[in-house]
Every structure is written in structure tokens, then in C-alpha cells.
Specification:
The protein is an alpha+beta fold. The protein folds into 3 domains: about 160 residues, no CATH class; about 45 residues, no CATH class; about 160 residues, no CATH class. The chain is built from 20 helices and 12 strands. Strands 3-4-5-6 form a 4-stranded antiparallel β-sheet, with helices on both faces. The relative contact order is 0.08.
Amino acid sequence: MERLLEAELIYGRLLTVNEPHLIARYNKALKGFGLRETALAEFDIDMTGFSPQIAAELGDWDYLDPNKVNRRFIILTPEQENLPVVHTSFSNTAGLMHEFFTANARAISAVTIKDALYGEIEDTVAKVDHIEDLLSINEVNFKVYSADDILGKAAELRQLADRVQSQPDAWRDDELLNRMVDLVKQTGDIRQNTLVPDQLVFRHDAFWANHFGGVYVFHDGRNTTVICRSDVPGFRKARPWQVSYIDINDYETIYGFLARTKRIDLPQASWVLDSGLYQHRMTMTLIGLAREKQPDFDPDKADAVWLQTWAHLNAGLVSAEGSFPFLNEMYRQLTSIGQIRMPDVPARLRFLLIRADARHPDHWLVNRLISQMIPFDFVSRFVFDKQGFYDSYERYDEKFREYVVKTLERTYLKDKREFRRRLYAINED
């Protein structure tokens, strides 16, 4: 992973924590979770407060994700809202954290001047052993504490202030007034600074969970669709009257679901010809084939001319696998007649031709699912399914790892937003 770290392809864009008072607050949060305090003088954190250095120190990469459910968080600064989430069991953790930061921006800004917020994203289950456990999560509740109990002190100050206003002789109580003065020194004027978060309950919408090898859950009104392996506990048994189940290897049914629910862009010349997506996938296909079938494959030589030559010299192999000639033919067909009859396309190959409809709220999750269907496209896998990418990367030899990093630096990292806009129509401006 050293090469990924140097290129900031893993644990990139994290926030460095090296100020003693922030480390002390982080330690109080760790202690609040019943964990050992860190001895590090510097470490990095993501949006949730997860630190790869502290995870290594504790020997527990799930120290903020026990049982891979009810995710913990530590907030030292409002700046964490702009950081990625680099270690999570649910794809929507970042979305839920963004909602929490947005809904409680004033309170977070006020509290973190003097304190740290910590707690957990609590849902209805403590452990996931069955699909029903995932389906029962409809909403989450943020349980929030503060390292130096600023929240508790603010609540106490509010109660004392209410007593002064409601009880005629309360202002004569020196002990009460002295306590209020002491609390104000610690909390500031709570009439001006909102210290208690306003919104703590949020919807738990469509998501991917890394339980049972990966489970996708989509919602359409009262109907729910689950996509995962068919041997997962509860498959087709949990709420069969309400939930549709699709095996992750059933390309036909998965495609039908995505098309029927309008979650994908079907191939049209209007977007394919300008996006460069098919050319990108053709290149990724040839690279994947060459790596798999040619023992002495040197990725450093694999420019466009080399790949074209290799494809001609290995025409039988390329034809037998099918993806490259198929994409070539479909691109020519779109150029000449502007559309493709998808019912005529074998189910496995349909995922080469589509992308998520960026107007649908589930577009990021759908692109994740599509990238899983075409794993040779390691660039798209990195963009939408980093855990899947890292798992594949571990199986690459050193030479190909170097090539993968260089390719990501040359393509995606050069201009992330433009890459996502051009290939996937994701406009984030």
C-alpha cells in the first residue's frame, strides 16, 4: 500500500491533528468509547474522525466501527465536513455525516471551539447476522456527547437560567448564581451560541453494506430491492412480500431492475460519442486481457499503438473474450444510427454500454454496482468502489500496481471533477 499512500490514492486528503489540545480532546473521546488513549503526537483523521495511524496503534481497524454497525464518530473541527470517509461498512456513512454537519452547523462550530463532539450513528440493530438486520434500518439517530461535557454544562446552564426566570426568589440564591457564572465561563453565552445539536434523526436510504461479501439495498416507495449473493442468510426469506431479491450474478435481472426504475442512461449517441466512456472501457479491456493472458506483459509499453498491435496479434483471444470487439461494434453502430437495441445484447455485455443516470439520487451507488460488473476497469472501480479496488490491487503484481497508480494519476487524479463530469455526467458545480 506504500505506493497508494505516496500517491494519496488511499487515506488521501485527511486532516492532520498535531495540536496538543486537540489530541487531548481526541483522547477523551477514545476514553469515552472505552478505548486506549493514543500516544501519538500527530495523526490524520477523516470526516468521522477515523485515523489510520491510530487504527494501526490500537491494532483495530474497526475501532470506530464495532460489529460493522452503529458507526462511531469524533468531531474535533467543522473542517471535517469537507474530508472523505476512508473506512466504513456502509456506503452512505459520508452522506449521513454530511446531513448531520449541515443540520447542526452552528452547534458544531460553537462546541468545537472548546470541546470535541463524539458519539455513534445508532440504528435499530447491534449486529448484522441476517438480511433482515439490514432491512430493519430505516433511520438512524446520532447519539452525541462532548469530551469535556460542554453539552451537559450547556443543558445545566439552560435549566438554571429557566429557574431564575420562573422562580421569583431564585436571584437571591448565591450558590445558584455562582454556578451559572462558572458555567458561562465554560460554555459562553448560550443565548448567542447554540451548543446543542438540533437534528439528530436522519433517513437511512439506499446503500451498500460490506456484510456477507457486499449487499446493495435500493428503495422505491414501499418496494425494496436487495442485490447480493444468493447464499446470504435471509435471501428471499426476509419480508418476501415486500422485498425483491436479485442474485449478484443475475445480469439479466439486475439490468432489468436498473432500466425499469430509470436508474441508468441507456446508450445514445448524444452522450456516448462525447463522453469517451466506451473508448476508456475498450482500453481497460485490452489492458486486463494482456495482463491476464501474456506472462511477460510489460504495462509500461502498453500505449495505444502497442495495445492495437497486441489486439491484432491476439485476435482469437480478444474475440473469444468478446468485450473489445463488442464495444467497437456498438460504438460504430451509435455513430451510424444513434442507438442500440438492448434486448439484442447479451445480458453480461449490457453493463459495458451503460452508466448511472446522474439525475437519480442513487447514481453514485448504481455506478458502484456497474463498476463491480466490469472489474477490469480499475479506474472506474477506484472512483466508485474503493474497497473493491483495494481488494483487487492486493492481487496485482508490483509492476502492474505501479502502472495502475500512474494511470490513475494521469486520468482521474489530474482533474477528478472533469473526469466524473465527462465520463459519468456527474456535475458537482
